Amino acid sequence: MEQIKKERLESKGWKIGIVSDFLELTPEETIFVEIKLALSRSLKDRRQKMMTQVELASKIGSSQPRIAKAENGDDSVSIELLIRAMLATGATPKDIGQIIASVG
Amino acid sequence: MEQIKKERLESKGWKIGIVSDFLELTPEETIFVEIKLALSRSLKDRRQKMMTQVELASKIGSSQPRIAKAENGDDSVSIELLIRAMLATGATPKDIGQIIASVG
DNA sequence: CGTTGTTATACCAAATATGATATAAATACA
DNA sequence: TGTATTTATATCATATTTGGTATAACAACG
């Protein structure tokens, strides 16, 4: 969805850096991206305090590279994975809810 | 992930009805499912008050059948889609955060 | 310096989620 | 009742997300 817009620009010779800076997103799309980034940052914080990326990956049957992407806001990472990872760090629904509620 | 467990049982001759009832899920998996169901229910409530499934679908570039599945907790529906749909009903991050925080 | 532990990047095949379509079922209401 | 509107179910090709692997970059420390 962001991917489509990105490709449209790239095909016209544009080079994309930080996407959300000048790619026109609808307000909803912007919020969606911000929610993912907020979860991403929180995941990194929490995980760093208690384990390595390898350990977290194995807890949720994922891989270290994917955890790295999750923590770096790579947009190939879904909210699904972010939430599964958060839960594996011991985050409660309340924790996750607060992070999302704080967006915007 | 749930799918794998389901197939494992079905291959042994079991017939699955309401999955989460007797399929052993880890606490994290249970919470994850509950979050999706909570979003699902809230989506249905909100959407019904203001538009049809067709209208909501077109707002987010989806289809009516997929909205139906989203509202019925079909587990082919990702949290991604649930949140995009919620936002399209005007739900704020705060609204969504509260729904998630109330799980468990 | 080299070694060890950790995280980042690139690529890919397989799994999963998706929107589209067709159509059935349910609901409302004349 | 019949008919229009809305929602549910089934199928499917495509798109996206996934975990695995290899490997690079980086940091800590002897």
Descriptive overview:
Two copies of one chain form a homodimer. Chain A has 104 residues and is mainly α. Chain A has seven helices and no strands. Chain A binds a DNA duplex (30 and 30 nucleotides) through residues 3, 52-54, 57, 61-69, 71-72, 76-78, 80-81.
Topology:
The structure is a homodimer of 104-residue chains.
Chain A: H1 2-10, H2 19-22, H3 27-50, H4 53-59, H5 64-71, H6 79-88, H7 93-101
Helix pairs in contact in A: 3-6, 4-5
Chain A binds a DNA duplex (30 and 30 nucleotides) through residues 3, 52-54, 57, 61-69, 71-72, 76-78, 80-81.
CATH homologous superfamily of chain A?
lambda repressor-like DNA-binding domains
First-last Cα distance of chain A = 21 Å
Total discrete domains of chain A = 1
Approximate strand percentage of chain A: under 5%
The number of helical elements of chain A comes to: 7
CA radius of gyration of chain A: 15 Å
Q: Work out the number of β strands of chain A.
A: 0
CATH topology of chain A: 434 Repressor (Amino-terminal Domain)
Order of helices and strands of chain A: HHHHHHH
Secondary-structure-derived class of chain A: mainly alpha
Please mark out the parts of chain A with pLDDT under 50 across 5 or more consecutive residues, or reply none: 11-21
Biggest interface: chains and residue counts? Answer: A-B, 27 and 26 residues
